[in-house]
Amino acid sequence: MNNSYRVMLYHKQATSARTRFVCFAGDSVLGFESVATLAQLDDAKAGNTRLHPAAILRETEQRLGLPQDSLQAEPQFQHGIDVPGGVVQVLLASITSIDPPFAAVEQAGGRFIDLTQARGLPPVELELLRHAYELVLG
Length: 138
Known about the structure:
Layout: E1 5-12, E2 19-23, E3 40-41, H1 53-64, E4 71-73, E5 79-83, E6 86-95, H2 102-107, E7 111-113, H3 123-137
């Protein structure tokens, strides 16, 4: 995956609106590599030079063993993380299956978490989760 991008994945249950996020190996909601603990959001630079989300989503599907077109980007979510050497763009995508793909995510070393289970994550990830949750639930 392009090192200047991270992907956040969520699944929203159609009947109950229960929303879960993928926590990747290494206990980060940023796939597939976490960022420095002290990293901060830098939304002023978030819109600069964005890679088309299709490439990131296809690679993510392949890495997780998900069917093609099972992820859908949220274009309104445009956030960047200031890291040494530049800004990492964060792409938010929904998992479009009826039920969360628990087995595929677990096989890739991850798990699904509710927002309340994210308390121990770094502050920048908590802030990104807050933005994502507000967007998803309106």
